[in-house]
Amino acid sequence: MKDTLTAAAARRIALAAQGFGGPRPGPDTTRRQLTRLIERLGVVQLDSVNVVSRTHYLPAFSRLGPYPRPMLEELAWARKRPLFEYWAHEASLLPLSAQPLLRWRMADARDGVGVWKGVARFLREHRPVVDRALEQIRERGPLAASELEISKKGQGGWWGWSDAKRAAECLFWTGELTTATRRGAFERVYGLPEKVLPGAVIEAPTPAREDAQRELVRIAARAMGIATERDLRDYFRMGVDETRARVSELVEAGELLPVSVKGWREAAFLDPAARRPRRVEGDALLSPFDNAIWFRQRTERMFGVRVRLEIYTPAQKRTHGYYVLPFLQGEAITARVDLKADRKAGVLVVQASHAEPWANDETPARLAAELEQMASWLGLEAVRVEPKGDLAASLAGALPQGRHGSVPIGPGLDRTPRRSPGSPRG
Questions:
Q1: How far is residue 114's CA from residue 150's CA, in Å, rounded to a whole number?
Q2: High-pLDDT (> 70) share of the chain, %
Q3: From CA 61, how far away is CA 59, in angstroms rounded?
């Protein structure tokens, strides 16, 4: 007999697995705490959009509070690093232990399997360019694509990339190059894996494809706590058939438990070691690329809200704004804010703010406190709420000097958990 869970219980399991509801050490966060969080998540998505903050900084802020931002850069790109970059969910940061688990994907890129056909074709048809790129990096050390002496400007396609950039990216996807560091405006600097990654990682045996995929599904299951097959597949962007086979194998081995969740149309699978908290406290602003909400079907099933990235939607057709962060209040998403960091003015601008139907009277004050904390973490001096959206007036009023919708930021914000709001499900 399958265990049957309520939607609310499933949501609590998922939030706890993702690291919500625990202590937020903020400025006192240690390198070990940040590393353990990323190991718990398994993967953190990278993105270049910097309207508020580049997305890879935000999941740790949501879970740990205002941790030291340079600490993440050290973990990702310093000489002795516990993380590396590769294409996992999307362009991602991952623990070094995952590098051998993704070698089958690097092999697929070299062989042109499935979505990697264009990579293999470029490597085959532009071999002199590819060889020159590799030769220069071997001779000169880590280089950005702009430093490769090959060709300058692309002719459309592949985002107008130059041949040098395309060669470097293809070699990155096949694992023949890796990210040595990032510089300037998020520019990737490419290096040879054997020069960048620890020898223990390079020398680690390559697991069989099926073994590696099983471990990736295990990581995804631990990170989500409870998930459908599609959720598990999306976490590391695996194929339909291979995910189904690996899930079936893990169920047979007792490493995934089939369960039913009231209100879910699809069967679910529970990590046997997942915590089952009675409630989850605390607040968090979520990047649109946060692990907890990046798969939109899961977000709607779990929280009852439709989250859409509207960056590429014409301004007049946007519903919630350009760069929208949902607000997690306890166990529910109760609001959304369209944020912009005006660094010249030193202000975090709330360009629009909208409440969900189940938001409660505490929502404006709790959201205001989280915005103040984010502004301080970003080095900004004030929060300003623009009069757009059904939550704008009450949110501005919840800030000190509320009628102006702006507040100077000071230390020591009160992060005491408060009562959870109403929930759309379960």
A1: 29
A2: 92
A3: 5
Q: Are 250 and 214 in contact (CB under 8 A)?
A: yes
- Give the integer Cα–Cα distance in Å for 80 and 82: 7
Pull the structure tokens for residue 65: 């509070």
Q: What is the pLDDT of residue 424?
A: 58
- Mean per-residue pLDDT for 332-340? 98
Q: Residue 407 above 80 pLDDT?
A: no
pLDDT of residue 420: 47
Residues 292, 296, 298: CA angle, nearest 5 degrees: 65
In 3D space, the residue among 21, 1, 39, 12 whose CA is nearest the CA of residue 260 turns out to be 1
**Whole-structure pTM value:** 0.92
Question: What pLDDT is attached to residue 21?
Answer: 95
Residue among 1, 90, 59, 73 nearest 31 (CA):
73
Strands 226-228 and 187-191: unpaired
> Which amino acid does the sequence have at 254?
G
Rounded alpha-carbon distances, angstroms, from residue 295 to 43, 90, 292, 303, 307: 14, 12, 8, 12, 9
Q: Are 254 and 270 in contact (CB under 8 A)?
A: no
> What sign results for the dihedral spanned by CA atoms 146, 148, 152, 157?
negative
Confidence grade of residue 2 (pLDDT, cut at 50, 70, 90): confident
CA 199 to each of CA 51, 139, 203, 207, 271: distance values in angstroms, whole numbers, following the listed order = 37, 20, 6, 17, 32
Strand partners, 45: 92
Q: What confidence tens digit (pLDDT) does each residue in 202-221 have?
A: 999 999 999 999 999 999 99
